Amino acid sequence: MAPRIVVLPGDGIGPEIASAALGVLQRVAPDLEFEEHEFGGASIDAHGTALTDEVLEACRRSDAVLLAAVGGPKWDTTDPDKPRPEQGLLGLRKGLGLFANLRPVRPLEPLYDSSPLKRELIERTNLLVVRELTGGIYFGQKTRTADRASDDCVYTRQEIERIARVAFRAARSRVTSVDKANVLETSRLWREVVREVHREEFPNIELEHVLVDNAAMQLIAAPRHFEVILTENMFGDILSDEAAMLTGSIGLLPSASLGQDGPGLFEPVHGSAPDIAGTGTANPMAMFLSAALMLRHGLARESQAAAVESAVERALADGLRTPDLGGDATTAQATQEVLRHL
C-alpha cells in the first residue's frame, strides 16, 4: 500500500508553500498519496475549533503529517474561552504522542553571508536541537484571576528518560544538556536523570551540562561547539528560534516532531507570515526541507530525502534568492528552480 500523507496547509502562506512542497514530493516520490484537511485558523473559521476530532483521527491513520503554518492576527485573542490556532498544534502533539522535536541547524555555504553573524563564526556549524515537546510549563496546570496567574512546570522521570534517549541516539560524539539547575527543581531532576541515562546506556557519548543563559550566549559566540542540544520544552522553543538565525533566515529551517510509534509531524519553523500571504513571495524552502525530514524520519526514505536537500542547496548555490534572502524570486520560481535540480 502506498504511504498516506495528511497535509495540513493551515493559514497565511501555508496553502502556498504546502502546494509547492506537494509538487516537489510528487516528483521525488510519485507513489505517495495525499489528503488535505483544514487546520488552525482555517478550521476555527469552518468548525469553531483549531483541530476537529475527524482531522485528528485522519492524522492518526496516516503514515506522516505535513503541516505548513498556523495562526495570524485574525485569531489573536487573550480571551481564554476563545479558540486559538496554536491550540490545534498542541492538540496534535498530544493526540499523536509527539514528545520529541528535532530541529537541525546547518547554515548552507551559499548563504553564509546572509547570516547576521560573521562567516568565520558560523561556517561548518551543524547542530541538532532536541526539544521535549509535551511536558513542562506549556502543558502544566494554569490558573488566572484578575490579579494573579500561574503556569505549573512539571516533569517526570519517564518524560526526561525518553527524550534523553532520542538525543543520545542522534549524537555521534557529544550531547549538551541545557537546564537551569541552579534555580529550578525541575531542572535538577532533569540533570540527574540525563546523567543516569548517559551512564547506564550511552557511556561512549560525551555529555556536558550547560545553564540555559550560558547556552544562549554560546550559541552566538561559538555555535560550532554544539552537536546535539538536549533541552526541555520552553528552553527548546527559545533556543531553537535563536539558532535559526545562524542560517540568516528562519525561512530555511525544517522541524520534525516524533513519538514512540505512529506518524510524525513535519513542519517549517517559520510562522504563517500573514503580511505576505497571497503575494506569491513566500520562501518555500523550509517546507521542502521539512518534506525531506518527513521522507527520512517518517518514511525511512534516505535517498529521496537527500535528493530534496541537495536540490535546495544546489539551487541556492546557483543564485536562487527569495525576498527574505535579499532576492526577488517568487514562490513559484523557487519551486521551479528546486525541481530543475532534482
Q: Tell me the distance between the termini.
A: 25 Å
CATH third-tier fold name of the largest domain = Isopropylmalate Dehydrogenase
Radius of gyration: 20 Å
| Tally of separate domains | 2
Strand count, sense and barrel status of the largest sheet are: 10 strands, mixed
The helix content, as a percent range, equals 40-55%
User: Helix/strand-derived class?
Assistant: alpha/beta
- In which order are the strands of the major sheet placed? 2-1-3-12-11-4-5-10-8-9
* CATH architecture heading of the largest domain: 3-Layer(aba) Sandwich
Reading off the top of the CATH hierarchy, the class of the largest domain is best stated as: Alpha Beta
Give me the count of strands.
12
Helix and strand pattern: EHEHHEHEHEEEHEHEHEHEEHHH
Proportion of beta-strand residues: 15-25%
Label this structure with key terms.
two-stranded antiparallel ribbon; alpha/beta; Isopropylmalate Dehydrogenase; single chain; 10-stranded mixed β-sheet; about 40% helix; globular; 12 helices; about 350 residues
Question: What do these coordinates show?
Answer:
A ten-stranded mixed sheet has the order 2-1-3-12-11-4-5-10-8-9, with helices on both faces. A two-stranded antiparallel ribbon has the order 6-7. It is globular, with a radius of gyration of 20 Å. The protein is an alpha/beta fold and 342 residues long. It contains twelve helices and twelve strands. Helices cover 41% and strands 18% of the residues. The protein folds into two domains: 1-98 and 255-342, Isopropylmalate Dehydrogenase; 116-247, Isopropylmalate Dehydrogenase (3-Layer(aba) Sandwich). The longest helix is centred in the middle third of the chain and has 17 residues, at 185-201.
